[in-house]
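Async update (no meeting this week)

Hi team, since we skipped the sync, here's where things stand on the single-chain job. The sequence we agreed to prioritize is pasted below, unchanged from the tracker. I ran it this morning and attached the output directly underneath so nobody has to dig for it. Comments welcome in thread, and please keep replies under the output.
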Amino acid sequence: MVSPYDKCPILENDNYMLRLVEAVDAPDLLRVYSDEKAVPFFNGDNCNGDDFHYTTLERVQSAIEFWLRAYMGRGFVRWAIVDRHTGEAIGTIELFNRRALDGQKPRDYFNECGLLRLDIRSDYEETEKIKEILSLIVPPAFELFVCQMIATKIPPAATERKKAAEQMGFKLSEEKLIGGEDDKVYGDYYVLLK
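Output:
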């Protein structure tokens, strides 16, 4: 399989399309990142304090520019989630193979793990919609990102998201993710093994 950094795959079904985020998505994504009901479900772990609550078009444009630079540097892939019926970008999915080593030793359980971040508008925060979106990316993610495990953070209040993930086989992990240079500890990760 071709690396997603060499050619970002487009993944789609009848209702949704996942494609590399583009500058033209900014107005649609402003609706996502300014949605105060959605923001608490976004994963800002290890993101230098970013809570992903963006209230201006300029801030969303800046985020998209950063995401595309990270993609070009092979840091992570950020797909736009496009509702095929409306043509709108209703969220994003980020995925990368997290390598966390202390010298030769894994820093935590989530080393060589496909780490998935899902940001969607609150009106899409429904079990069946989330499951349909995740079903596009989760199965090929193991091969795309050369990993044996996919992990995603699901805060306790995200009950619809939790149901969708559990229906796909994800289980709450007791393991904690250890952050970057400050060794901050993060929880609420659900894991799916290959």
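Quick observations from my side:
The first helix runs from residue 26 to 33.
The chain has a mean pLDDT of 94.
Reply here if anything looks off.
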